[in-house]
Amino acid sequence: MSFFVRSKQSSGQKRGALTNRKTKKRKVESKHSKNEEITSSEDEELPSTDKNNVFSDSEDENETAQEKEVRLAKVFLEEIEREEKARLEKDELDQTVISKRLKEDHLRKTGKLRLTIAEQYKNIEISSISTLKCKQQRNAITSICISSDNKIIFTGSKDGNVIKYCLTTFKKLAVIPFIRNHTEDISGHTSEILSLALSTDNKYLAVGEKTGKVYIWDPNTLKHIKILTGHKNSILGLSFKKDSHTLYSCSQDKCVKVWNLDEMAYVETLFGHQTSVTSIDTLYKDRVVTSGGHDLRVWKIPEETQLIYNGHSGNIDNVRLINDGHFITGGDDGQICIWSVMRKKPLFCVESVHGMDESNDQPKWITAIGTLINTDLFATGSYDGFVRLWKLEDNFKKCVEILKVQVEGVVNALMFTSDGQKLLVCVSREYRLGRWITVKNSKNCIRIIHFNMQLLT
User: Fold this and answer.
1) Which sections of the protein are WD repeats (predicted)?
2) Residue 184, C-beta contacts closer than 8 angstroms, at least 6 positions apart
């Protein structure tokens, strides 16, 4: 039985086909195509995509797949040469440097790159902790995303506002505001923001609302592009496949959906979870990991199959990939677990990571996990007043705590910059999924933990 839903070619007059009256109405509505909502239930009836909304890497429409691949490879090599020359400040560049970069890039994309850097964080002195806070986000900040060059971050909150910050000057740059009702030109959100994602090339910003809609924005101009609809409840997680415009979304409606932003189109729906899907992550492969209720699922998109994992005694609220073969989970049982895609039971578990809750004598929930991709380092957050850093050992079969940093409040999101220099901590008075956890004396803000060392180049 397939767990994937695909749209079928319609032939003849079938249920849902447009009558002449509906066709005329659709033609009238097409005048306002810039505010058009793309729905997963209506993908068969959509008009052809406007040329202005289609992005192509080809310089020539008649270019073959092989010619395109060769051209892009040449562009990539030229880019590497420029970067290495600038870094080494040399006119002549040793070919071994380029070969090393190509090898690292290949290993990174295949999920086989392994960088052991966690030991450098052990008992390190924190150089400083910066705070980002603004009046537009008085309610809980639920999500955060960062540009691939580590210069820009976006934060979303239950106020319905999305804030754009500069990570070099630590100043607010712009706001996508909360608005009560949409006009012809969409300029903001109408509900709580529960998830954010930014494409690797910084071309698309995806924002998930409590209404079940996914808004697509231009992160540079903050101009609205499209609304993706189809989910029937809150969007709890968003993730872009690396180096692509494939977007995955998970929702309280128990579904995972796949979108193609090159065509601004719905692709398919992944069914299987029996409760709300609370977290989602993906890297370079056509594979996505999700958590919801007591189970985890790894979806192999091309094979149209899914793998089910069990191990936690409670709900699994967070899942993050450390590479394409391993991932970390945390939930309301207070455990963190290390997993391999090849095994359906965890490789290693740590119980009561953030201590016990004195009010109910239960372990404090794991409310956030952040990983430094393709390394042996990850971080966890809760509401015990500390963010904890962990080192993976013995080929992912063990982890040990190496550092803890004091941060007051409920940690709703954690994200490392790609160079490992900073850890972004999304702190709030309440938990992003509800008010079951509250810390009254904390502030709704972003804490930026600075590590004063050069790790990844």
Assistant:
1) 186-227, 228-269, 309-341
2) 32, 35
Per the structure, the complete domain to which residue 207 belongs is given by 118-450
Side-chain half-sphere of 266: how many Cα atoms within 13 Å?
Answer: 27
Domain membership of residue 33 (yes or no) is no
How many folded domains does the chain comprise? 2
Q: How far, in Å, CA of 339 to CA of 331, rounded? A: 14
Q: What is the C-alpha to C-alpha distance for residues 411 and 369, in angstroms, rounded to an integer?
A: 9
Same-domain pairing of 389 and 353: yes
Whether 232 and 94 map to the same domain: the answer is: no
Phi-psi region of 12 (alpha: psi -120 to 50; beta: other; left: phi over 0): left
Residue-wise over 117-129: b if at least 16 C-beta within 10 A, else e? Answer: ebeebeeeeeeee
Query: Tens-digit pLDDT profile for the chain (457 aa)?
Result: 444 544 444 444 444 444 444 443 444 344 344 444 444 444 433 333 343 333 344 445 567 767 777 787 777 777 766 776 666 655 555 667 667 777 777 776 665 668 889 999 987 777 789 999 999 999 999 999 999 999 999 999 999 999 999 999 999 999 999 998 777 778 889 999 999 999 999 999 999 999 999 999 999 999 999 999 999 999 999 999 999 999 999 999 999 999 999 999 999 999 999 999 999 999 999 999 999 989 899 999 999 999 999 888 889 999 999 999 999 999 999 999 999 999 999 999 999 999 998 888 899 999 999 999 999 999 999 999 999 999 999 999 999 999 999 999 999 999 999 989 999 999 999 999 888 888 888 899 999 999 876 655 5
Domain co-membership, 314 together with 344: yes
Q: Is residue 207 part of a domain?
A: yes
Q: Where are the alpha helices (DSSP H) in 110-178?
A: none
Asked if the structure places residue 267 within a domain, the reply is yes
Place of tokens 């690797």: 200
Residue reference for tokens 């537009």 = 136
Q: In what order do the strands lie in the sheet containing 128-132?
A: 128-132, 445-450, 422-428, 410-416
Same domain assignment for residues 130 and 223: yes
pTM of the model: 0.78
3-state secondary structure at position 242: coil
